[in-house]
Give the backbone structure.
Amino acid sequence: MTPRPLLALLVVAAHAVSAQGARADGAPRPAANLRSGPYLGVQPGLKDVAPGKENVKARGALRVLTWVGFQMQGPGGRVFIQTSEPAVYSIVASDPNEVVLEFPDTRVQSSNDARALDTSWFPTAVASVEARAAKGLARVVVRLREVVGYDLRQEGDYLYLDFRPPTSTGGSAAAPSASTPTP
């Protein structure tokens, strides 16, 4: 390659890189994930409605899954699921390192509510939580670092899964062990 085409290629590449960091009006783009301040999400018992969800109600027989959350509650962690009215659900057989709940006649309120929660950085049994929309139902999949027992209870519009602590506290959720569940 001769120096002239190489120089043209470098100029085009530099322009493309700088265009990614600026808006059309030339102002710099804000950096991603720089939000600071108080947590705006649902906190059972403290803040039961997230911004923009004040008027969410079930439509006829169709319930709405309004929030899936994680709390560092106890050594095993807590997953909570909020619905527009008391949930009807079933626990579905799956991989031993997963707890899968299906909510018939329920929809996930928004695509934001279906984003996976990466909880692998916390020293709990829960590696991740994800809500999914499926045909005629909503599904919540809790992936575990290792197989542990849990308590499941429903209080009003909340469903709580309180997990027992993992036997190992370090490492990644990518390589869970195949231990026996605790009673």
Remarks:
- The chain has one domain: 33-183.
